[in-house]
Amino acid sequence: MLVALSIRDIVLIDRLDLEFAAGMSVLTGETGAGKSILLDSLSLALGARGDADLVRHGEAQGQVTAVFDVAADHPVRMFLRENDVDDDGDIILRRIQTSDGRTRAFVNDQPVSAGLLRQAGALLVEIHGQHDDRALVDPESHRALIDVFGGLTAEAEAVAQAFATYRAADKAVTDHEKRIEAARNEADFLRAAVDELSALKPETGEEEQLAARRTDMMAVEKIAGDLNEAFETLNGTASPIPELASLLRRLERKADQVPNLLGQPVRTLAEAMDLLEETRGGLESALRETEYDPRELEAVEERLFALRAASRKFSVPVDELSALCARMSGDLADLDAGEDKLAALVSAAGKARAEYDKKAASLSDKRRKTAKALEKAVEMELPDLKLERAKFIVEVESNPENRSRSGIDQLEFHVQTNPGTKPGPMMKVASGGELSRFLLALKVSLADKGSAPTLVFDEIDTGVGGAVAEAIGLRLARLAGSVQVLTVTHAPQVAARAAGHFLIAKEATRKDRVATRVQRIDEDHRSEEIARMLAGSVITEEARAAARRLLTAAE
């Protein structure tokens, strides 16, 4: 339920903090005091469309905060969790309206979209009035209310699940038929492609491995050429080593004769000969280590080029050739064994459809019985609401071929306001005052079923008085036994039934400014306010006595 409402700088309200309790609360006051502003503010916090004109003149922004105390298993908590919004403790909806037309929305101080705020608000509060453009407009809500009233929610969910199963089975048939047709049109191409790819046997990652092996082998081939040339220079027929060796021997013989002259050159030449021999040995060892088979390089290149050619031909990366082959093989298998599989899918779809039809037909029968029960319950409320000649009708149209997740029924609330007139949709046929009373009768009949935890009624007693206003007040009080009820009213008979009473008035704040003030009033002030509602501007003792009688009767 709504436990607190805080308003800052909205139209005539500069600062307002209200606390609400369970049961029925009424808001009364002179015409123009600001009752509609209060409801507009609440609507803004619930996600209604923003408007720059709502911001108090001269201020940069206005703000409304609504605090709700709801049970741990209330649907709004699950909704918030599904949207990654914290739902611990109270649920706090806050909306900021700026003077340039922009708005910002928050749930539990977490920024959210206006759409999410509106969805959360709809789970917490319903606002109804003579010119209601939200409540019960969508026939989908009528069907949901019938299900809730008849305790059919679980069966409706089972129908929805059966519909999902049926649609999935039906889609499987359609998809398989398309695959068979496509495979049949491309059968020759598919067989040739599968034969080619099966012979090629591509493997994932093979291209990368082959490319790396080819690069390594080509690098080795280039190095091997240089090594061969160097080795041939030192070891071939043109090698300078034998001639240098002969020269070294001659010099060694002559060195004994002139050691001071040839000793150093002979030693240096001997060291050079040793280094050349070492170099020749190293080159020979390197050649042995870089030996490779040119035929292997050729085979690697042929394999790599074949894979890349297939990639270009089939317009897929090399790594996807294997998966493509599997898909094409599957398409051929579907073509070869498609009729058997299709027959199985058609059979499964038929069983799913039959199961759905069975559950939907059962639900439809129960909805028709529930519709009659709701008609009787609502019509029992109508005489006291001065609608004794009116009828409430739940129009049910069922079409077994019109399958949907909600079943095979189209439901809509119709009314006949006078004998001899044509029944029609409640939102179109009933006048403003009649609509509000039909709505009240419907809400009382549903009690706490299918209702938000807080119901707001905006002047639904306009244009009625006496016994009808008394009946409205009695039913609002009865409804408040199940849900929280907030009512803006001009009827003293309704105000007398409230557990909480808020008086709305204008107050001058300075010479050129006024502000709307709201205060909770006690029993003595309630009696005086109800007397004012009875008598008008001049409150007489008779009016005060009548007010006391109304309060006593209500108690």
Automatic annotation (TrEMBL):
Report the Gene3D superfamilies cross-referenced here: P-loop containing nucleotide triphosphate hydrolases
- What is the documented function of this protein? May be involved in recombinational repair of damaged DNA.
Q: Which UniProt keywords apply?
A: ATP-binding, Coiled coil, DNA damage, DNA repair, Nucleotide-binding
The record's family statement is: Belongs to the RecN family.
Q: Which residues form the RecF/RecN/SMC N-terminal domain?
A: 14-502
Q: What is this protein called?
A: DNA repair protein RecN
Positions in coiled-coil regions = 166-200
Lineage in the entry?
A: Bacteria, Pseudomonadati, Pseudomonadota, Alphaproteobacteria, Hyphomicrobiales
